[in-house]
């Protein structure tokens, strides 16, 4: 019997984890960052589709922790630890953070992609998680998939085709 | 919502007129849909997060800021170029610099007429920025328009209009994602009482 490969989908401003086998995927990353965490021993992987750099700009009301880099990274880590991953083994890869549009005299809000990347990196180093690889920046969109058996991150884009990290 | 629909209708009506003048052909327009949509569903409006679209993006500044997208499939963009400026697009994948700037100009005219009628109707100052063009995954493009909403919640207000130019099937879509503050301003400008539900 051929088992169909399991794919866990992660939406915009969302996060999820997967274990044992299968892929975890998020589509259409522009200025958003797809941050992945992976523990090779227990084969546990997590993915967050981060939209904004910091939760300090959030207005009152319910906070979606998956949306902001500073809250999504620790939340993803915690979910992985809950299913038996160990912090010292966890490694990170990420992709996205592009600038889809460029304008003359663009303000700081238009640098959201690079700021998302910076914020993810800050949080990772705070938590002592090594960033193994990244494919960030540019001016194009990406779809990414992490294989939770191998930890390989597949990156697909319209302009550049498929890439493996 | 009905008021916003009417506003979208009037804007789109003007843009359709502009388009039909450019093409010298009648252009039909679908009645706009005004919806509050979760982020995930926004890209589905144009065929899914991964579908490749050509987008002309304008930031709207002034009293009621927001993000305006005019979205075309690459095929529709090629047809539009052929009809409008007589450019026979050779490459399947790419547009030349000339084609790119022609498309940008078309987008500019359409978006401009869309906005100016919205501005007339609401008496709000709405100024478009210089348009930016991109051809990429719909999710990546529209995600950009949702950033202002990112501060507020997980869904966005969309005014969505489709153009159909019958025989040639050139289809385009306007998506206006007003900044969250926008509704209040537009409602006040229209004299509609606000309620919180």
Automatic annotation (TrEMBL), chain A:
Specify the domain of life of the species encoding this protein. Answer: Bacteria
Query: Does the keyword field hold Disulfide bond?
Result: no
EC category name: hydrolase
For this UniProt record, give its keywords in alphabetical order, as a comma-separated list.
Answer: Chemotaxis, Hydrolase
**Which biological process annotations from GO are given for this protein?**
chemotaxis
**What family, per the record?**
Belongs to the CheD family.
Name the chain's protein: Probable chemoreceptor glutamine deamidase CheD
The species this protein belongs to is Paenibacillus lentus
- What is the phylogenetic placement of the source species in the record? Bacteria, Bacillati, Bacillota, Bacilli, Bacillales
């Amino acid at each position: 019997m051929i088992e169909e490969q399991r794919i866990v989908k992660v939406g915009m401003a969302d996060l999820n984890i997967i274990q044992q086998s299968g892929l975890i995927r998020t589509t259409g990353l522009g200025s958003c960052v797809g941050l992945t965490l992976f523990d090779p021993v227990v084969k546990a992987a997590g993915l967050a589709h981060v939209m904004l750099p910091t939760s300090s700009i959030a207005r009152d009301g319910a906070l979606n922790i998956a949306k902001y880099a500073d809250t999504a990274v620790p939340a993803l880590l915690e979910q992985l630890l809950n299913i038996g991953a160990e912090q010292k083994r966890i490694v990170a890869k990420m992709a996205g953070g592009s600038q889809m549009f460029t304008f003359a005299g663009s303000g700081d809000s238009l640098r959201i992609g690079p700021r998302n990347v910076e914020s993810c990196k800050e949080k990772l180093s705070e938590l002592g998680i090594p960033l193994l690889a990244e494919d960030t920046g540019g001016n194009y969109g990406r779809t990414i998939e992490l294989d939770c058996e191998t930890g390989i991150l597949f990156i697909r884009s319209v302009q550049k085709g498929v890439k493996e990290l | 919502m009905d008021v916003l629909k009417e506003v979208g209708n009037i804007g789109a009506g003007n843009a359709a007129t502009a388009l039909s003048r450019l093409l010298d052909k009648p252009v039909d327009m679908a009645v706009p849909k005004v919806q509050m949509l979760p982020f995930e569903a926004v890209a589905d409006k144009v065929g899914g997060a991964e579908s490749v679209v050509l987008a002309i993006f304008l930031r709207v500044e002034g009293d009621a800021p927001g993000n305006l997208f005019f979205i075309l499939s690459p095929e529709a963009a090629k047809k539009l170029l052929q009809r409008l400026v007589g450019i026979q697009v050779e490459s399947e994948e790419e547009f030349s610099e000339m084609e790119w700037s022609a498309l940008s100009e078309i987008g500019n005219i359409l978006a401009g007429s869309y906005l100016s009628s919205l501005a007339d109707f609401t008496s709000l100052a709405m100024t478009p920025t210089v348009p930016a063009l991109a051809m990429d995954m719909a999710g990546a493009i529209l995600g950009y328009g949702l950033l202002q909403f990112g501060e507020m919640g997980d869904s966005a207000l969309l005014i969505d209009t489709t153009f159909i130019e019958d025989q040639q099937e050139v289809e385009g879509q306007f998506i206006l994602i007003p900044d969250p503050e926008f509704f209040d301003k537009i409602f006040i400008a229209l004299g509609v009482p606000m309620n919180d539900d």
